[in-house]
From TrEMBL, chain A:
Its main location: membrane. Keywords: ATP-binding, Magnesium, Membrane, Metal-binding, Nucleotide-binding, Translocase, Transmembrane, Transmembrane helix. Its cofactor is Mg(2+). The active site is at 409 (4-aspartylphosphate intermediate). It is found in: Membrane. The keyword tRNA processing does not apply. Belongs to the cation transport ATPase (P-type) (TC 3.A.3) family. Type IV subfamily. It comes from Muntiacus reevesi (Reeves' muntjac). This is Phospholipid-transporting ATPase.
From TrEMBL, chain B:
It is found in: Membrane. The keyword Coiled coil does not apply. The lineage of its organism: Eukaryota, Metazoa, Chordata, Craniata, Vertebrata. Keywords: Glycoprotein, Membrane, Transmembrane, Transmembrane helix. This is Cell cycle control protein.
Length: 1183, 343
């Protein structure tokens, strides 16, 4: 954190200014008063907020030397500050902050050591390198941070790519390299990259590689993940490079033993880093508000001081001048105007306690405490992965209680990224897994506790041990040798594009291009049809223990239009078979008429599958006669060679052979959601939190998941799809959607339109618009690119914000950030982004709060997040329980804190009118010093660390309680003004009641009690009693600690009083402790206690009355809910709500995955079906 | 679980009430009935308290004699500082319609004298007054040293402005004879002030102790001559001095000056009749439009004649009861609406 950032917090500048004022001798305070300000050096509050733990250089690969330097800078800066602190401050409270500081310093020391160690090793590495280069060519292992542009690096299987590299050669034929891009775009299928032929010849010949002297000219670093243009100049020839040659940082090498690449971009130039956006210093809305309020207070203070200075001027003119016999002016004071100028600054110092530094210290402590609660929460601990929730920043807690928009990634966040072969229908027989939630745990932890139920696959020694399936009938069928079942599984084991790996005999690892396919092949494997290996012409399958080799004659690959794939194989018996799998809508039109009845039964089954939200596929086969195939084969190869219209011709040829298919059955695969996702989303919806899914994945899968997890519902009136390819169509689509939701929102008379017509200045807020029903919106990345430009962004925002659910698919990471930015900019609402992969980093950084899913393979998202959870479902607890509490506590804290300081400080203003505006304080200087540090700090900390207005069960059961936070109802400018007025009133009472009491009054032995010191004591005792009573009113949750803090602080005050006013201390330092005997003489006066009681009554009753009348006169929805809760607490109800939350995916249906005809009445009744996607496939193949 | 802990340490957070935010607690919810009855009780309490306080304040006899106007000629004389050595006496007579029973206290009261000015309050040396170092005058600006450069004892603006009018109260026993009312001049200051906070420097002879110091410029005589008759009332531990040094909080204040010595005809208190004060007028106030007065008063348990607390309690009680009734009305009227919400 640099100085500039320090002063972004206005208060820091303010405190620096006050510090300077103190040093200048406007008002010679005695030393202890001085300490109370300067003992807290500037920026103490901010050192404690040190944002994130510095990621250790090793774990965050990119923490290159630049970052380390940055950390070093911070270290030096903080260390200087730290030592200054330690020397200076002597006050008890700071022991606490000291400890934190010491930890920090220690942490930095360790960091420094690592830096030295690191640089040493780098240096030695460098030296070593030089030596080696001179001797012979060899591969050197080095750190990520040392990779430089122009290096040639070798990558091995399953390694994460360190930089954007140009593929030179690889172990696979044709220099193919398989990569997984889940970190980049959320897609889980494998992609293929191929090196250009010149370089691929080098293979792993180090001599050739090291002699490679090509020159690459390419575009400058940019954030486009799917585009790259460049030229390689090598041996006098130019080769064109495109993004097929480039392997991006963040990918994972799969299925390839090794590959060599030339580094093109490193570090911040890489595409993924270009996409990840700038990381900014996040500050909460409350922080911003506090900045504004500090400014207000500053102005208020200034005007107050000005008025008092004017008062002093008048007083000096009228009276002070004539009073000079008794109190002559100082030598340098020539006129009352000059004296007034000095008084202005004196009052500035006296009244500055309106914003004490302890406010900031306390705020940090509260946030720290509330962060610890998050770390400590057992209910957010995920046992299978042994990860608790983690608050990685301690500065954003209260904002968790204000979230309005949640932007979620799909893969790995909503889903587990596990595909499960769930159900199937074979030749009209329905097989189902008795599949339970525990299953997922079983699969992850490899626990075998459920073996009793589990099907015995012992007959098949190639079975995947992790697989579990509980339907015995299917196994029986396989064992019996049912022809159809065998054919079904054979087709699954043949008709796919999976690649197998068998490093150790019997341990097969499948590299599937899509997890769906992997699930199918794995299922076939476990039922005894093990796909073992393939070559370009054969497929080896172990069928029930017997190895058979099929000749692969043709693969008719998947495409988005065809929505099916087929293979043609020659069996060992010399039969030619075609196996086809694909979308049911397509496939059922290609079936042979003879399987009509079977088709009907299967369709029924498919309906069932679809209604469970499963991804369905149909499987069919056809037996071909040899001549026909020869004929077709010829046509096919001709079509493949044709130059014009090749795609079309191929597909026509394919259609010729994919006819008259015999239906085998259907499969259903579940894209497994994380536990509790639908319930969580339902709860968050109830809390009026809008959830947008931003994913890089395909539209179909995204929409399927949206249905499965309640973002879209069947009851929705309509779902709009925006997929235009230019500004015009996108704009039109958006507008027509908006017209349907709210017809008059297009009219000029609409308030939002007329507001926009006034052309407000850029940072403006678009008000909330209410649609006529519930709608959903789907928008694709291409359309989004248009929609995010220029004037369309407002259209997009208005349309999207009216929808209940929004799905954005095929997005680049940067677009995710742009969408978040858009909402942030115009809605002024708190946004939260949650994701798990590198492609989510950008939005995590941009959003007000970034949440990373931890415990996954990639750490990128987690490392740049503010909170790390291990499951999506913990989000509801994080927001509704921790967030809500943090927000409520912070608001209560701020209201109370401002109140107590206004009440405390403004008494001086009233006294000014009776003390010749001479900057006389009402209190003893010791009281001023201790008020914020000792007497009132613990009760308010107790309030803001332990208070719970309702307990966690209620806040989860009534998510509506979350709403006030979203509108920031508990602490805003209005509330602040209320605090101010309340403070002014209290200070008025606290001054005039004691004044009336002591004025012209005497104690019963005749001695007068209207002396300054007794008056001070009475006022400060009343003040303390009043603010303590006020906090007892605010506290709703009285723990033992609250009692100790609140009453203890009050008791402690009296103890300290007797100590400070004792004979011994005063005789030791007569000039420092002047209040000798005041406590003894004044505390036994009946008037004093009558005065305290009266002050309490006068200060408390209006507050109690206001709190009593407020819900009666101005009822807010939350009041009613709280009323209801109180009612329920007194008369406990049976627990009906639970069942409502137990709503699972079974109720909704992914009709979209089925065909049109199958649903009969249900579909015709639902108007929603019309707009749904007629063509749908769940088959994410490579294209 | 067991197996897990063998594999690696479980990071499961502790299940303590503190960490899980499950601390046993009392939930404070004020119901409407509690609030309303609280208001009622408070109102009744305040009313009762107000009545008691007013009654006891009424039982006090008090008389205030403002002599600023009556001694105008003396005031005029004192405006010119060069006349400091000229004596000026004036006599003020008054009539006491009812007798003052019990202990009677004599106060002097100043109007418009700001003893609470910031610089004024600071201008004293507690180290000097406690007797440790008579020459310590650090905080005493602007009255630190005399013109000759000697440290002033007692230094500072407060000491310098010591109220130095003296009074003699005469009782007109009958038309011809006047009796001097006996007054006690001690035990007017706080015990802690007299015996802890103010100490003479330890010397056998008080005047020796103050050697090398100067008297405050406004004082006619040095500090060790304040009360030469009574050594326990001389120097820094002079009661009048101590009382003055305990600065008042407001510009209008009264300070205890003398107590009635209840002997002879004054055993019962001050009898009714006519009295006169002989005032030795020394303290100038007319320059800053100040006023001086003398107050004779009796006392009760709740102190003096100030009506403030009694009235304040009475008003508070009345307002609270009023609030109670209106809140009750609102509550009853809106109760139906409220129960409607509950459904």
């Amino acid at each position: 954190m640099n100085l500039f950032e320090q002063f972004q917090r206005l208060a820091n500048a303010y405190f620096l200014f006050l510090l300077l004022l103190q040093v200048l001798p406007f008002r010679a305070f005695s030393t202890e008063y001085f300490i109370s300000f300067s003992g807290e050096p500037l920026g103490l509050a901010s050192t404690m907020t040190q944002q994130r733990l510095a990621p250790s250089p090793a774990s965050a690969g990119e923490a290159g030397s630049q970052d380390l330097l940055y950390f070093l800078n911070i270290f030096l800066y903080d260390f200087r500050k730290g030592t200054k602190m330690i020397i200076k401050s002597t006050i008890v409270l700071f022991c606490f902050s000291h400890r934190i500081l010491l930890w920090e310093v220690l942490g930095y020391l360790i960091l420094l050591l690592t830096v030295f160690a690191d640089s040493y090793s780098v240096l030695s590495d460098l030296l070593l390198n030089e030596k080696l280069k001179a001797q012979k060519i060899m591969i050197v292992t080095d750190k990520w941070m040392n990779v430089q542009v122009g290096d040639i690096i070798k990558l091995e299987n399953n390694q994460i790519v360190t930089a954007d590299i140009l593929l030179l050669s690889s172990s696979e034929p044709y220099s193919l390299t398989y990569i997984e891009t889940a970190e980049l775009d959320g897609e889980t299928n494998l992609k293929v990259k191929q090196a250009i032929s010149v370089t691929s010849e080098m293979e792993d010949n180090l001599k050739l590689l090291s002699a490679f002297d090509g020159e690459v000219r390419c575009e400058s670093p940019n954030n486009k993940l799917d585009r790259f243009t460049g030229i390689l100049m090598y041996k006098g020839k130019n080769y064109i490079l495109n993004h097929d040659r480039l392997i991006l940082r963040g990918c994972v090498i799969r299925n390839t033993d090794w590959c060599y690449g030339l580094v093109i971009f490193t570090g911040p130039d890489t595409k993924v880093m270009q996409n990840s956006g700038k990381s900014t210093f996040k500050r909460t809305h409350i922080d911003h508000l506090m900045n504004v309020l500090v400014l207000w207070i500053f102005l208020f203070l200034g005007s107050m001081c000005f008025l008092l200075a004017v008062g002093h001027y008048i007083w000096e003119n009228n009276q002070g001048y004539y009073f000079q016999d008794y109190l002559p002016w100082k030598d340098y004071v020539s006129s009352s105007a000059f004296s007034a100028a000095l008084i202005f600054w004196s009052y500035f110092i006296i009244l500055n306690t309106m914003v004490p530094i302890s406010l900031y210290v306390s705020v940090e402590i509260i946030r720290l405490g509330n962060s610890f609660y998050i770390n400590w929460d057992q209910k957010m601990f995920y046992e299978p992965k042994n990860t608790p929730a983690q608050a990685r920043t301690t500065t954003l807690n209260e904002e968790l209680g204000q979230v309005k928009y949640v932007f979620s990634d799909k893969t790995g966040t909503l889903t587990q990224n596990i595909m499960i072969f769930n159900k199937c229908s074979i030749n009209g027989t329905f097989y189902e897994l008795y599949y339970e939630i525990v299953n997922s745990l079983v699969m992850i932890s490899g626990h075998k506790a459920h073996s009793s139920k589990k099907v015995d696959f012992s007959y098949n020694n190639l079975a995947d041990p992790k697989f579990s399936f509980y339907d015995k009938t299917l196994v029986e069928a396989v064992k019996k040798g049912d022809h159809w079942v065998h054919l079904f599984f054979l087709s699954l084991s043949l008709c796919h594009t999976v690649i197998s790996e068998e490093k150790v005999e019997g341990e097969l690892v499948y590299q599937a291009q899509s997890p769906d396919e992997g699930a199918l092949v794995t299922a076939a494997r476990n039922f005894g049809f093990v796909f073992r290996s393939r070559t370009s012409e054969t497929i080896m399958v172990v069928e029930m223990g017997k190895t058979r080799v099929y000749q692969l004659l043709a693969i008719l690959d998947f495409s988005n239009v065809r929505k099916r794939m087929s293979v043609v194989v020659r069996t060992p018996e010399n039969r030619i078979l075609l196996f086809c799998k694909g979308a049911d809508t397509i496939l059922c039109q290609l079936l042979h008429p003879s399987c009509r009845s079977l088709q009907d039964i299967t369709m029924d089954h498919l309906d069932d599958f679809a209604s469970d939200g499963l991804r369905t596929l149909m499987v069919a086969y056809r037996e071909l006669d040899s001549a026909f195939f020869q004929d077709w084969s010829k046509k096919h190869s001709e079509a493949c060679l044709s130059l014009e219209n090749r795609e079309n011709e191929i597909s026509t040829v394919c259609e010729e052979i994919e006819r008259d298919l015999m239906l085998l059955g259907a499969t259903a695969i579940e894209d497994k959601l994380q536990d509790g996702v639908p319930e969580t989303i339902l709860t968050l919806n109830k809390a009026k939190i809008k959830i947008w899914v931003l994913t890089g994945d395909k539209q179909e899968t995204a929409v399927n998941i949206a249905y499965a997890c309640n973002i879209f519902e069947d009851e929705m009136d309509e779902i709009f799809i925006v997929e235009g390819n230019n500004d015009e169509t996108v704009g039109r689509e958006l507008r027509s959607a908006r017209e349907k939701m709210k017809p008059d929102s297009l009219l000029e008379s609409d308030p939002v339109n007329s507001y926009l017509a006034t052309k407000p200045q850029p940072p403006f807020k678009i008000p909330e618009e209410v649609p006529s029903g519930s709608y959903g919106l789907i928008i694709t990345g291409y359309s989004l690119a248009h929609a995010l430009e220029g004037n369309l962004e407002l259209e997009l925002l208005r349309t999207a914000c009216m929808c209940k659910g929004v799905i954005c698919c095929r997005m680049t990471p940067l677009q995710k950030a742009q969408v978040v930015e858009l909402v942030k900019k115009y809605k002024r609402a708190v946004t939260l982004a949650i994701g798990d992969g590198a492609n989510d980093v950008s939005m995590i950084k941009v959003a007000h709060i970034g949440v990373g899913i931890s415990g996954q393979e990639g750490m990128q998202a987690m490392l740049s997040s503010d909170y790390a959870l291990s499951q999506f479902r913990y989000l509801q607890r994080l927001l509704l329980v921790h967030g809500r509490w943090s927000y409520n506590r912070m608001c209560k804290f701020l209201s109370y804190f401002f109140y107590k300081n206004f009440a405390f400080t403004l008494v001086h203003v009233w006294y000014a009118f009776y003390s010749g505006f001479s900057a006389q304080t009402v209190y003893d200087t010791w009281f001023i010093t201790f008020y914020n540090l000792v007497y009132t700090s613990l009760p308010v900390l107790g309030l803001s660390l332990f208070d719970q207005d309702v307990n966690e069960t209620w806040s989860l059961r009534f998510p509506e309680l979350y709403e006030p936070g979203q509108h920031n109802l508990y602490f805003n400018k209005k509330e602040f003004v209320k605090c101010l007025l309340h403070g002014i009133y209290s200070s008025f009472v606290l001054y005039f009641i004691p004044m009336g009491t002591v004025f012209n009054s005497e104690c019963k032995d005749g001695k007068e009690i209207s002396d300054y010191q007794s008056f001070s004591l009475i006022v400060q005792t009343s003040l303390l009693c009043v603010v303590t009573m006020q906090i007892t009113l605010e506290t709703t949750y009285w723990t033992m600690i609250s009692h100790v803090f609140t009453w203890g602080s009050l008791g402690f005050y009296f103890c300290i009083l007797f100590f400070l006013y004792s004979d011994g201390l005063c005789l030791l330092f007569p000039d420092v402790f002047q209040f000798l005997g005041v406590a003894r003489n004044t505390l036994n006066l009946p008037q004093m206690w009558l005065c305290v009681v009266l002050s309490i009554i006068l200060c408390m009753l209006p507050v109690v009355g206001y709190q009593f009348l407020k819900p009666l006169f101005w009822p807010v929805s939350v009041d009613q809910i709280i009323d209801r809760i109180h009612h329920c607490m007194r008369h406990p109800l049976p627990y009906p709500v639970r069942t409502k939350l137990k709503h699972t995916a079974s109720r909704r249906s992914a009709y979209a995955f089925s065909h049109k005809q199958g649903f009969g009445a249900l579909i015709t009744s639902g108007k929603t079906m019309k707009v749904r996607f007629p063509k749908r496939n769940s088959f994410p193949h490579k294209r | 679980m067991k197996r897990k802990s063998q594999d690696c340490k479980s990071r499961l957070p502790d299940n303590s009430a503190m960490k899980q935010q499950q601390l046993p607690a009392f939930r404070l919810q004020l119901s409407a009935n509690e609030i309303l009855s609280g208001f009622f009780a408070t109102g009744v309490f305040c009313l009762g308290m107000g009545v008691i306080l007013l009654l006891s304040a009424k039982s006090i006899r008090e008389i205030e004699i403002n002599y600023t106007e009556k001694c105008a000629s003396c005031a005029k004389l004192r405006e010119d500082a060069t006349n400091f050595d000229k004596e000026c006496n004036c006599s003020v007579s008054f009539y006491l319609p009812q007798k003052m029973e019990g202990n009677v206290y004599l106060y002097y009261k100043l109007y418009g004298f700001y003893q609470n000015l910031y610089r004024y309050i600071l201008s004293r040396s507690n180290i000097q007054l406690v007797g440790t170092d008579v020459k310590d005058v650090r905080n005493c600006a602007p009255f630190k040293t005399s013109d000759e450069g000697l440290p002033i004892a007692p230094c500072g603006a407060i000491a310098n402005s010591l109220f130095n009018d003296t009074f003699v109260l005469l009782y007109n026993f009958n038309s011809s004879t006047q009796i001097k009312v006996p007054m006690v001049r001690t035990a007017t200051a706080w015990w802690t002030d007299k015996y802890v906070k103010f100490q003479n420097p330890t010397y056998q002879n008080l005047s020796h102790a103050f050697e090398g110091t100067a008297k405050p410029p406004n004082w006619p005589k040095p500090v060790y001559e304040l009360d030469e008759e009574d050594p326990r009332n001389n120097g820094f531990i002079n009661d009048d001095f101590i009382v003055w040094m305990r600065t008042a909080a407001f510009p209008t204040f009264k300070k205890l000056h003398r107590r009635l010595h209840r002997i002879d005809s004054f055993t019962e208190g001050l009898p009714a009749g006519s009295y006169s004060f002989i005032i030795n007028y020394n303290f100038p106030v007319s320059k800053f439009q100040g006023q001086k007065a003398l107050v004779l008063s009796t006392l009760t348990w709740s102190g003096g004649s100030s009506l403030f607390l009694g009235l304040a309690y009475l008003v508070t009680g009345a307002v609270t009861l009023l609030a109670f009734f209106s809140m009750m009305a609102v509550h009853l009227k809106l109760k139906e609406r409220k129960t409607f919400f509950l459904q």
